[in-house]
Inverse folding.
């Protein structure tokens, strides 16, 4: 079995790169190593100790936490890279932040944040003295304390690293439009096996060295995950090197386990990388020619759990997966382990590192940068403080004229594209538009008039014909929802603004990224020192109801069900039915902070209902009665027809028209819902309607037929506590469909006008028997429509070109 490599390879221009020159004087080396020992001491202390933080007395069981929760294995490597970067921040006055991909190694990040003083500034009760250190140790991964990852509570963090895979894309998002920023990102070698991380190496093709900052990935090749070796650590060196060269990087290797040698190697290699980055940037910036350089990256091959216990109970720990979490457990009834822990902690010689009060000694303190140059205090990592509001054109200028509701059709997203174009024009430094190859398909292509798609890879002559590519584009398109979402999150968390559009069925690719970001935002709101960041705006388009040519796999409105699981404080869902309501919603969302705004709007031709003034009022309320579609004014309705979503709204309106044709005296109330959370009780969501308002809109006892864009159960989830819930009958997508005409797809899922009208006949007591004839006729028309579709491949013109008749 191969042990960690200790061979030192010479620097070459074309082969494997490892810097060998000794950059650290003996004193620098001694101090740097002492600083690292302090980090490692704190990391272990955080995991184990609740008292006796400086080991001023012999270690006793009562000094040790009863539950040992945390991850030691990653921590020493993380702080190793962090403090080496500190050296260069001071030497070259770098503006740098640090992202820990394996965020479970938080002790390796919290330790330097504490040593450089930021932690105590942010949390004054964790001061830089013995009592502060005790409190700092105790709260880590402790009930009522802080989490065991680089959560938002961690000063300097924009990346929790709870769910692995997003570190590199987050790092690039942070670097975009921050020309002076260096984003160092540690990538777990296990993390590198995830799909999201694998695709994100390509981000280097989207970094413009003139206007963007730099990303320096450090692959943390500690060889192991929780219980397994990592693939990248068990392939030949050449294969690993070729892999990264193939991704367009220049890999530098730092490999070994002897701290003295490794410090020299890391100091030299990191410095070479920083200088190489500067050279690349200067060349591009002085020539004005954007290019795609082969940016440097570092492969840091070091033992997992470096400097920790070598063996425990006869099992190898350092340099093996057993070092992943707590190397020594069962302390309280195992004196041998207690002794081994004490020996391990004392091996860092805390008495040499901290003064009598418990503060880091001044010669070591001097190794950390000052003020906002400290990575834990860099404002980019608390992006809300840098955030400037977007300069917004007036969204009303993009309205379309609606003289009478339900007469003209328009593509709902196209005017939004023009609105985004002009937002882009006014915010050319802090706004970007993201989409997985779909901005044109989603009818947002007007945005290219302001800025093209960023492309730094090769160009072909034919690209000039509609390719819309440019090396300075601000529209980000790559076919990786993961990478785009990660870029956007990184961009927002560093204080900028963005807009992401994606196909409804495939937004599920980022379900769990959405989850992670929602959790981040929920915690962000709890921390007074974290300033609000721009909301993440997600347009879900190419929706389930218009997948005529793509079929079954493209029909999935279930993302909304995922969104609903997350904290109501941070999630918003909007289903604007037409152009003007979409513009009004987008205008609101783009100026909001600390939310994830999910907007569902199909891109194809749809009937238009609301004037801009009506749209503003309707969207401000979030839901409301459409008077012109209702005939119950001044009386109690016999039935409420409700809708949410563009196509369901049209079918619901057509159902109302059919019912009025058949039953002129039937009193129908038409309610449209734009803001889905309005349906929730006000006690559960800040947007929720009071029971009084809900009952007055949806009645306390009349049947409600609700035609919904997504899966029907979601409306029940939202309304189950309402007085009239037992009378709410929801239609929505039920996994039926393939290559259908729009109406046939609606019929198969029973959201069509005929099914809805029949539903009403079935639910309104006075019609149950009297409506039998009408029901028959509606069924016949439904069957005729399906036959027509199967015969002609299109919907009957009278359906296709249906207009609101009243
Ligand atoms: C996407 C995802 N899958 C699984 C996990 C569970 N998990 C936590 S740590 C870990 C191993 C990580 O190994 P590596 O990236 O090499 O980090 P190291 O601790 O070695 O630095 C796993 C599988 C996770 N956090 N995220
Ligand atoms: Mg690992």
């Amino acid at each position: 079995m191969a042990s960690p490599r200790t061979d030192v390879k010479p620097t070459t221009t074309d082969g494997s790169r490892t810097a060998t020159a000794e950059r650290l004087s003996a004193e620098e080396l001694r101090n740097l190593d002492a600083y690292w020992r302090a980090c490692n001491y704190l990391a272990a202390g955080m995991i184990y100790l609740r008292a006796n933080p400086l080991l001023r007395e012999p270690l006793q069981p009562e000094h040790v936490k009863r539950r040992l929760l945390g991850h030691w294995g990653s921590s020493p490597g993380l702080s190793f890279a962090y403090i080496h970067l500190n050296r260069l921040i001071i030497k070259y006055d770098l503006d740098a932040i640090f992202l820990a991909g394996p965020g479970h190694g938080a002790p390796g990040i919290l330790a330097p944040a504490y040593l450089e003083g930021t932690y105590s500034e942010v949390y004054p009760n964790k001061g830089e003295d013995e009592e502060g250190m005790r409190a700092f140790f105790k709260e880590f991964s402790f009930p009522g304390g802080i989490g065991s990852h680089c959560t938002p509570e961690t000063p300097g963090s924009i990346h929790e690293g709870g769910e692995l895979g997003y570190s590199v894309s987050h790092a690039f998002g942070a670097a975009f439009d921050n020309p002076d920023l260096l984003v160092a990102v540690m990538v777990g070698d296990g993390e590198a096996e995830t799909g999201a991380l694998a695709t994100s190496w390509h981000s280097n093709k989207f970094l413009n060295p003139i206007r963007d900052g730099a990303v320096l990935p450090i692959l943390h090749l500690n060889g192991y995950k929780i219980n397994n070796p990592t693939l990248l650590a068990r392939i030949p060196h050449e294969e690993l090197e070729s892999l990264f060269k193939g991704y367009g990087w220049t890999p530098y290797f730092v490999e070994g386990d002897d701290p003295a040698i490794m410090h020299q190697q890391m100091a030299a290699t990191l410095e070479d990388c920083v200088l190489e980055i500067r050279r690349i940037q200067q060349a591009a910036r002085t020539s004005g020619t954007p290019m795609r350089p082969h940016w440097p990256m570092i492969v840091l091959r070091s033992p997992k759990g470096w400097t920790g216990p070598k063996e425990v109970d006869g099992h190898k720990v350092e340099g093996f997966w057993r070092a992943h979490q707590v190397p020594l457990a069962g302390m309280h009834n195992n004196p041998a382990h207690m002794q081994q822990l004490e020996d391990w902690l004392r091996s860092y010689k805390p008495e040499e590192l901290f003064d009598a009060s418990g503060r880091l000694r001044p010669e070591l303190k001097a190794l950390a940068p000052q003020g906002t140059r400290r990575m834990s205090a860099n404002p980019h990592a608390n992006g809300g403080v840098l955030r400037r509001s977007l300069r917004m054109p007036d969204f009303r200028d993009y309205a379309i004229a609606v003289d009478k509701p339900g007469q003209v059709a328009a593509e709902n997203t196209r005017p939004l594209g023009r609105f985004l174009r002009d937002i882009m024009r006014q915010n050319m430094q802090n706004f970007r538009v993201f989409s997985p190859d779909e901005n044109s398909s989603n009818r947002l292509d007007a945005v290219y008039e302001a800025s093209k798609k960023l492309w730094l890879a090769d160009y072909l002559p034919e690209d000039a014909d509609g390719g819309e590519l440019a090396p300075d584009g601000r529209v980000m398109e790559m076919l990786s929802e993961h990478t785009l979402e990660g870029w956007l999150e990184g961009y927002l968390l560093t204080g900028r603004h963005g807009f992401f559009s994606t196909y409804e069925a495939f937004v599920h690719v980022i379900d769990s990224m959405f989850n992670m970001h929602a959790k981040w935002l929920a915690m962000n709101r709890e921390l007074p020192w974290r300033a609000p960041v721009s909301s993440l705006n997600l347009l879900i388009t190419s929706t389930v109801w218009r997948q005529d040519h793509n079929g079954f796999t493209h029909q999935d409105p279930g993302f909304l069900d995922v969104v609903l699981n997350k904290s109501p404080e941070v999630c918003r869902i909007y289903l604007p039915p037409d152009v003007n309501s979409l513009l009004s919603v987008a205008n609101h969302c783009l100026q909001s902070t600390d939310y994830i705004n999910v907007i569902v709007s199909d891109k194809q031709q749809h009937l238009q209902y609301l004037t801009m003034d009506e749209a503003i009022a309707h969207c401000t309320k979030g839901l409301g009665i459409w008077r012109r579609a209702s005939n119950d004014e001044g009386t109690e309705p016999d039935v409420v027809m409700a809708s949410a979503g563009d196509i369901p709204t049209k079918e619901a309106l057509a159902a109302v028209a059919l019912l009025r044709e058949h039953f002129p005296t039937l009193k129908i109330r038409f309610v449209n819902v734009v803001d889905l959370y309005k349906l929730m009780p006000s006690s559960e969501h800040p947007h929720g309607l009071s029971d009084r308002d809900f009952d007055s809109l949806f009645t306390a006892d009349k049947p409600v037929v609700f035609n919904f864009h997504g899966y029907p159960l979601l409306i029940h989830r939202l309304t189950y506590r309402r007085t009239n819930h037992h009378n709410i009958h929801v239609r929505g997508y039920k996994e039926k469909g393939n290559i259908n005409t729009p109406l046939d797809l609606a019929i198969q899922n029973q959201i069509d006008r005929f099914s809805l009208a029949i539903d009403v006949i079935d639910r309104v007591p006075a019609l149950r028997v009297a409506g039998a004839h009408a029901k028959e006729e509606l069924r016949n028309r439904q069957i005729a429509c399906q036959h027509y579709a199967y015969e002609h491949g299109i919907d009957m013109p009278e359906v296709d070109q249906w207009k609101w008749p009243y």
Observations:
- The pocket of thiamine diphosphate (ligand 1) is lined by residues 73-74, 102, 104-105, 163-165, 188-191, 194, 220, 222, 224-226, 230, 304, 324 (CB under 6 Å).
- The two ends are 81 Å apart (CA to CA).
- Residues 166 and 197 are 6 Å apart (CA to CA).
- The longest helix spans residues 259-287.
